[in-house]
Design goal:
3-stranded antiparallel beta sheet, hpI Integrase, Chain A, DNA polymerase, domain 1, 16 helices, mainly alpha, Tyrosine_recombinase_XerCD
Length: about 425
């Protein structure tokens, strides 16, 4: 190893210093002469790429300490160029987001772009990466971002951006790593309980007759909206009384498109059909005579293959269906307004709550949790329990009976 240069750090000549060497380089007679130089000390070093860099310090001790630290980091491979962390978060987004192309579903990418535009960009766009600290992010999340779910999604995006900034050797630590979101709001079981079958029957009575088979099918299968509206006749087997979930219709900022079904592999599944569900399919098949062909997902919509369609034979959209759903739940006398975690009011029950009704039926019928998991398309069985089992009057009545009569409570899985 070659010896270290004796002139590193070295003192830089100054126009304000009156020592002999500074006066020699910058001759200004009116300056007061002095014996010791007060010029800054320059520490010179090479980064891992071999490029020479320099940094000035007021004292030699500070410059030598900096050089010792840099040399250790270069040898251990942990050196970071300070200038790489001086770009703003908006500049980093311009580099980072194109690198995410092709990662995740289109709907997920749209959600992330929305989180950037609505929440992260207005607050952090002009901040330099190295200046963003833990307490800054934690204060912002808890005081400026409203709603538990929104906080989770926004923090998830910012955390990923800063994680990759660490990987790209722009900053040393991720300031979002230990940031916590506000706890989810607690709700009474009555607010979580899905509609009963009696309530679902009332809603159907007040729906236009065309939509009744659709609602029956949703209630009898527990399938998601996009899975039902994207169901093709080639994936239905009425003789075996089941359907295969292989694709869905998704919404990209108002434009529907086809895509493979699952968020996870559990989304690909076979769903049994009750007699009521079979009758609903037969009603729609008799109306539209769908084709048995199986077109490729990337070949277009091919509405002629769909089982459930809009009243005019086109794609069935959530927005148009809500025009009939909201009046129906109001006329049935079951509608109520609930406040979501983001503070917005919404009508209960939602169409998605029919899925919860179906799952509750399976649990009440004693279907094992792993089988409920398979039919519902969940990747973990425990999710079924904490999503769909809402203790209410029935459980309270059982406990009261046990306390007053001594009857043993039934065991549950």
């Amino acid at each position: 190893m070659p010896p270290r240069p004796k002139n590193n750090p070295r003192q830089i000549r100054s126009k304000t210093c009156g020592c002999a060497k500074c006066l020699e380089k910058y001759p200004t007679p009116e300056r007061k002469r002095r014996r010791d130089c007060i010029g800054p000390w320059q520490a010179r070093y090479r980064d891992p790429s071999g490029k020479q860099k320099a940094k000035n310090y007021p004292t030699r001790r500070d410059a030598e300490a900096f050089l010792d630290d840099v040399r250790s980091k270069v040898r251990s491979g942990t050196y970071l160029d300070p200038k790489r962390g001086e770009i703003t978060l908006a500049q980093w987004w311009g580099l980072w987001w194109p690198a995410q192309d092709g990662k995740g579903r289109i709907t997920t990418r749209n959600r992330k772009e929305s989180a950037w535009r609505a929440h992260i960009e207005p607050k952090w766009a002009t901040w330099k990466l190295r200046d963003i600290g833990y307490i800054d992010v934690q204060t912002w999340i808890t005081s400026e971002v409203k709603g538990h779910h929104t906080q989770k999604k926004v923090l998830e995006l910012l955390r990923a951006m800063m994680r990759d900034a660490v990987r790209d050797q722009r900053i040393t630590v991720n300031p979002c790593l230990e940031v916590e979101v506000s706890p989810a709001p607690k709700r009474h079981p009555d607010e979580l309980r899905p509609p009963t079958r009696e309530q679902c029957a009332l809603i159907r009575e007040h729906l236009p007759s065309y939509y009744r088979p659709l609602v029956v099918f949703l209630e009898e299968t527990g399938m998601r909206w996009g899975e039902v509206t994207g169901l093709r006749w080639c994936h239905v087997d009425l003789d075996a009384q089941h359907v295969k979930v292989k694709e869905v219709l998704s919404d990209d900022e108002g434009k529907l498109f086809r895509q493979p079904a699952p968020k996870t592999a559990a989304g690909f599944r076979t769903v049994p059909l009750t007699p009521e569900a079979v009758a609903a399919v037969e009603t729609m098949v008799a109306r539209w005579r769908p084709a048995r062909t199986q077109s490729a997902i990337d070949s277009g919509m091919h509405e002629e293959e769909l089982v459930f369609r809009g009243p005019q034979g086109g794609l069935l959209t959530r927005h148009n269906f809500r025009r009939s759903w909201i009046p129906a739940i109001q006329d049935a006398g079951v509608a109520r307004k609930v406040v979501g975690e983001n503070g917005r009011e919404q009508w209960w029950p939602r169409v998605h709550d029919l899925r919860h009704t179906f799952a509750t039926r399976l649990k009440d019928a004693g279907v094992p949790e792993k089988d409920v998991q398979a039919v519902m398309g969940h990747d973990r069985g425990s999710k079924v329990t904490w999503l769909y089992q809402h203790a209410g009057e029935d459980v309270a009545a059982e406990v009261l009976t046990a306390l007053t009569t001594g009857r043993t409570l039934r065991a549950v899985s």
